[in-house]
């Protein structure tokens, strides 16, 4: 294959189809239990642990318990987390799908949150040898004792 063939742009219809196929392959989870609630503050511990503290007293933890032969981490945060504080959530959802660029097995997990003040996307990237979980956990810690998870 020549360099000219490699650099030839794809037709817009092909690009649209590839994007549509990727979006359709993602699973969606809506966190209905926190929509309408107000975040008091967000605590960030190291690079891969976020705690969302709500005015209701609920404390939601977003993290991944690391194991051997896998790496799951926050790859990017688009938007300002402070925009989520002090205003009711109008969007709270998770989308997961395969990462086609992973060497063996990969999962992208996107968390989308919005208030009237702004919108935030948190993108997690998980890669493993295919045997270990690449899933991200997001749960209300006030419903469980910490011993149940650690």
Descriptive overview:
Helices cover 12% and strands 43% of the residues. It is built from two helices and nine strands, in the order H-H-E-E-E-E-E-E-E-E-E. It is mainly beta and 150 residues long. The termini are far apart.
Short description:
The protein is globular and about 60 Å long.
Count of strand segments:
9
Question: How much of the polypeptide forms β-strand, as a percent range?
Answer: 35-45%
- The geometry reads as globular
The main sheet orders its strands as 1-6-7-8-5
Low-confidence stretches: none
Which class do the helix and strand fractions yield? mainly beta
Largest sheet: 5 strands, antiparallel
**Roughly how many Å is the radius of gyration?**
18 Å
The total tally of domains equals 1
Mean pLDDT: 87
Level of helix content? 10-25%
Please work out how many helical segments DSSP would assign: 2
Task: Encode the helix/strand succession as letters.
Answer: HHEEEEEEEEE
Measured between the Cα atoms of the first and last residue, the distance is: 53 Å
Helices, strands, pairings?
Blueprint: H1 3-7, H2 12-24, E1 27-30, E2 39-45, E3 49-54, E4 59-63, E5 70-78, E6 91-98, E7 105-115, E8 118-128, E9 137-140
Antiparallel strand pairs: 1-6, 2-3, 3-4, 4-9, 5-8, 6-7, 7-8
Question: Key features?
Answer:
globular; 150 residues; 5-stranded antiparallel sheet; 4-stranded antiparallel sheet
């Amino acid at each position: 294959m020549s360099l000219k063939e490699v650099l030839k742009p794809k037709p817009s219809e092909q690009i649209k189809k590839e994007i549509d196929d990727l979006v359709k392959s993602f699973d969606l989870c809506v966190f209905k239990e926190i929509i309408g609630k107000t975040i008091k503050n967000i605590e960030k511990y190291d690079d891969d642990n976020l705690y969302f503290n709500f005015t209701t007293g609920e404390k939601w933890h977003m993290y991944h318990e690391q194991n051997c032969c896998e790496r799951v981490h926050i790859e990017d945060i688009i938007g300002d987390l402070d925009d989520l504080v002090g205003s009711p959530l109008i969007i709270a959802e998770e989308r997961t799908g395969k990462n086609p660029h992973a060497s063996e097995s990969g999962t992208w997990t996107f968390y989308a949150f919005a208030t009237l003040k702004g919108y935030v996307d948190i993108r997690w990237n998980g890669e493993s040898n295919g045997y270990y979980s690449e899933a991200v956990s997001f749960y209300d810690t006030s419903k469980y004792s910490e011993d149940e998870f650690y």
